[in-house]
Each structure stands twice: as C-alpha cells, then as structure tokens.
Design brief:
The structure holds two protein chains of two kinds. Helices cover 38% and strands 22% of the residues of chain A. Chain A is built from eleven helices and nine strands. The termini of chain B are far apart. At the A-B interface, helix 3, helix 5 and helix 6 of A face helix 5 of B.
Amino acid sequence: MLLELHNISKIFGTGCPECLVLTGDDAERAICPRCHSVIAVNNVSLSLGGDEILGVVGESGSGKSTLLQIIYQDITATAGEIYFNGITERSGARTNILSLSPSRTSWIRNHEMSMIYQNPHLGLNFNFSAGGNIAEKILGSGEKRYATIRQQALHYFGKIEMPTSRIDDYPDTFSGGQQQRIQIAKALSSSPRLLLLDEPTTGLDVSVQARILDLTRALQYEMGFAMIVVSHDLGVINHLTDLTLVMKNGSLVEYGLTDQILEDPQHPYTQLLVSSKL
Amino acid sequence: MNENNVTFGFFDEDAKKEIRRAMLKAVALPGYIVPFASREMPIARGWGTGGLQITLSIITEEDTLKVIDQGCDGSVNAVNIRDFILQVTGADETTATPEATIIQTRHRVPEHPLIENQTLVYQVPYPEVLTTVEPDTARQKQMHANVDYAKLWVLLYEDTSQFGDSRISARYPVEVNGHFVMDPSPIPKYDIPRLSNNPALQLFGAGREKRIYAIPPYTEVAPLKFSDRDFAVEDFGGKRCQRCGASDVYLDEVHLDTGVSYFCSDTYYCDTQMETKDAAGTS
C-alpha cells in the first residue's frame, strides 16, 4: 500500500474525552455537545495502492478538505497515524509521517506528494511566472542545474497543452482553466507518487472541466501516480476515480468501488446524494 | 568616563553586554540573523547605526580604527563616524587597511587582503534576504530553519530565463557554511568571492532593522548559482583607474565635464599604488 491512514481525527477547539463518541455519523452531528469543539475528521482509516484513484465526496463541512490537508500536512491532525510507502526510520521500520521533523516533512511535500487547490492563488505564487512556479517545485526536489530545470519546466508546460512561448508569462495573464492546468504542471513536475486534488474543477465552465479531467486522467495513466480527489460533484468522481469514500459529519460513512457506490448506495446519505444527482 | 563626560564607547556596560551576546550567537551560527535591542544613537537610523553599535561594543583603547564608505576614507559619513568613535573611545585612527584592527565599512570589502585578528564591520540596510520573496517574518524563520530557499532560486531562474543571468548587482545572496543563506549587505558582486575563507571576522549590523549576523574567520561562503552556470562579477572591459592605472580592482564610474572617468573605489589602495609608482619613478 502507498498510503495508510489509521484512526485520523481532527478537532478544532479544546476537545474533551467524549468528543469522538458524541459526534460523527451515528450521532448525526459534528459539534461536540459537551465542549462545543468542531470534530472535522472523526476516526478515519483508509489505505490506497500505488496507482489507485480515490474520490472523496460529502456535503460542505463534512471534513473532506480537512482530510486532504492533513495528508499534505498543511494542518496537523489531533490524533492518528499516516504511513507512506518508503518513509522509514533509520532501522528500516516504517514511521508515522505525522511525527517527522519539519525538514523531512517538507522533503515529503517536495518529492512524494503534490496538492492541487481549488483556488489557484493557494497553489500558485502570482509573483512568479508560470515557468517560475514550475521551477519552484523542481528546485524544491533538489535540482540545481539551470538547463535541466528549464527543460523540465518546458516539458511539463507542454504536457498541459499550453504553448511553450507563454512560459515566462505571469499567472494573472492566464484564464482560470489555464491557471488550473499550470497548477497541474507544477504539481507533477517533481514526479510525485501521490497527487491530491481539492475540488480541482469547481467554478470552471463545463467544457474546461472536461478538458482538465481528461488531461489529469491521461497524465495519471502515463506517469502512474496515485490520486485522491475531493469533490462534491459526482460527475467528477464518476469520471475520474476507481474508489469512492463518502464522508458525513467528519466520519467515513461508505467506502467502496465507485461504480458500486453510484449504482447501489447503501448509506441513507449516499442514497440522497446519488438521487439528487440523477 | 572620559574628558567628554561620556562612558567609554558611548554605551553603558549593559548595552554593550547585550550587543556582545547577540554577536556571540551570530558567530556561533554563521549567517543566522540575531535580533538585538538597537539603541538610539546620535545619528539617524539607516546611517550606519548597526555597524556603529557593533564597533562601539568591541573596540578597546588599543584598537586602530578605519572607516570607509564605498571604499573611501574621506567621505562625509566615514569621517563623521570615525570622529565620533575616536571621541568616545580614544582609539587610534588609520586609513591603512593592514594597520587597522577594526574596519567599519559601508558597501565595500577593502581591496587589500585582510588578515587574522582584523574585524570587518558591515553597515547593513536590509538584513533579511528572504524579504523580497516572502514578506511574512514567521514564514521566513521557518524557511531558514528548513533550508528552504527554493523561492530565491526561482528569482535566479526567472532572471536567467529572461535575461541570461541574474540581474542582481549588489546584495547578491550567499550561502554561509552550507546552511543559512544571507544578505551580504549592498557590496558589489566583485566583493562576493572575497567573503569566503576570509581570515578576518566579519560582523554585520542593521541598526534600523535591529539585527546582527556574522561570518566567522575561514568560513565557506558561496553565492547562489546554478551548478551549470558561472558566477560572473562586474566587468569593466579593461578600463583602468585614471589616477593610479590599476585595472584589476573595483572601479567607480565618475561623470566629469570631460566625459566618463574611472577611479579605484578603494582610496587607500589607489594611494598605495601611487606611492609604489612614485618610488619606482624616483629611484
């Protein structure tokens, strides 16, 4: 397995010993009635293979994005462990990546994982050119030869079907869909083993959405990385993913093959979700 | 107290102690920026108060002081700072680089090679090298701790892709002792290679920004550059100093009525060249 999550929880607030029991799917709430903390992620465990594509669906505030940010370590989890294939202690024993030193954490973020954000302003530095943004990720992974960096940046810029003559232009001169594609080029330029996508196509028009999804799928097929896609759009999930995880009130309510979940939803919330789509 | 009714070195002992502690920490962590309680001075902040506070905290009556401004011993700022330090300490003054034990400088490294037991004190306007790419000071500290300088490299990448080389002429970022990247103060690129493995202690003081950092003697200092690109210093295209005729030095471009002239930026070096020439001429 490439990625394993064990009992991941995230509590915003003071927290109390009964937080996790008093909230979640069964309790039908995400706010602890005792201490009024928000339980964004409640005891989530999952595992992902090296070339699998996992979709995460759920309503607003169900904890999908928080889960993704915990994996990418934009925020720290309150409890739980995450194991990433190949990240070990010196003895060779596998190690919880949430307890690594800051320098190793940033090494993982530069070499092993990449994140694509819904808002390009989070994923791209608008003070750097498009090529500069891609170069930042390549430089972060340790490359210090200009010719190689330039050639790699041009390579990935071409991969996202952009004219290479525009590589030195700044992100604000590109359209929203193009900015999203530049984010993809930047994310893939370090050849990560895991790509995290947080609502990658929300807010884009339908034809652009389809183009970005096709591009992502083609690149995944070519380069062979695992993906976790967060979306509230079942169309995106259906188009892109093999496996689907449904979240509600911070907990995992249903997990299985995407086709199975969309054709034969078991949990009442998933049934509601699928029926409102169709 | 001396005859001017001022304590030795202008500051009280507690102030000097605090500045010395910051310097010790700076020397222990080459290139690391140490905050300190920058004092009110008789000159305005931004006019060399950082360098002045360092000099006043390390100087003794046995020291010989040289102060230069862009290589010149005679500029108004250099003269006033030197006079002030001499008044409150009674130290000796000199313009000769080899004779000085403490050299306070603004934006130049003297041409004459420095030796052990000399201290070079830089006046620094902007101590934090990351400010141009990351305005958040908390993030800057994290980036230094993680040796995460990718954003500085991106600037280098962008300049190289658009102009063929870095556009930075002064304040070129340098990596100290294989870890921290620091701002070497606005010295020209010509001086950058001379920071490395220098036998003298190099102290950097920013009075307005309240920061001190250091390069201990014999410390490896390398400019940020791509491994397949060479670091190029200023090229004067074979021009010579109009006064002493030196060509292998950093030259100032001076616009006179007769046209553009070039002179040594380091006035002491120029004087010594003249003396050797005169001696050769008379013998």
